[in-house]
Structure to design on (220 residues):
């Protein structure tokens, strides 16, 4: 890991929301890491030795059934942090955590984060506020996956992904989306086809690798 850039404001929204004094105390302890697509940050029950503040991209928190089926329960981008168990006095990650889009992140050792959190101030307030937001997202995901159609779940995932990345220029496959929303791949393909006829249709791209684009978001 390399020392993080100490410019102000930070690229991560939580860090950028700190006062200048708090951020300047924190910045020397941050380390910049690259998160390539598919990078596994944690497996379930892994010790949480670092927290990660993404600068961009998407990191997914994934849960598994006994049968091995995968479902995304939360998505984290530059608005958040991976490593909430640290401030909850838990030393293990309950989810599989995977970088779904390549990104840079600021990494902070768990003991440093816990020490700074325990000092109170704006840093503690921001992390507690984000924890509430993350728990709400997990609850909404559970509700959506239980009661919404595959098409509705697909639309929700695409909108949240675009909000997190502030970009519509990323590629995802039907197989990938089926794992994220907990639906069969065939169901995702049917839902994508239905969106082609909706008010915000999926449109074929015209490059050498035809994809579908919803609001600019290409789907393989």
């Amino acid at each position: 890991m390399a020392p993080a850039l100490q410019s102000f404001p930070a690229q991560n929204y939580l860090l950028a929301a700190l006062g200048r004094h708090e951020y300047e105390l924190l910045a020397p302890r941050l380390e910049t890491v690259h998160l390539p697509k598919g990078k596994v940050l944690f497996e379930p029950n892994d010790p949480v030795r670092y927290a990660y503040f993404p600068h961009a991209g998407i990191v997914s928190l994934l849960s598994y059934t006994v049968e091995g089926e995968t479902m995304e329960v939360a998505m984290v981008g530059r608005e958040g942090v991976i490593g909430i168990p640290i401030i909850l006095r838990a030393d293990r990650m309950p989810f599989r955590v995977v970088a779904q889009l390549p990104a840079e992140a600021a990494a902070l050792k768990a003991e440093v984060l816990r020490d700074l959190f325990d000092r109170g101030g704006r840093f503690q307030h921001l992390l507690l506020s984000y924890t509430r937001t993350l728990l709400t997202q997990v609850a909404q995901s559970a509700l959506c996956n239980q009661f919404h159609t595959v098409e509705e779940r697909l639309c929700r995932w695409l909108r949240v992904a675009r909000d997190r990345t502030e970009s519509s220029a990323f590629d995802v496959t039907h197989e990938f989306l089926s794992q994220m929303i907990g639906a069969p791949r065939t169901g995702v393909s049917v839902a994508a086809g239905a969106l082609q006829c909706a008010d915000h249709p999926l449109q074929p791209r015209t490059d050498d690798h035809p994809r579908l684009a919803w609001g600019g978001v290409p789907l393989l």
Notes: The domain at 2-147 is CATH 2.60.120.10 (Jelly Rolls). Residues 121-147 form the longest helix (27 residues). Residues 102 and 210 are 22 Å apart (CA to CA).
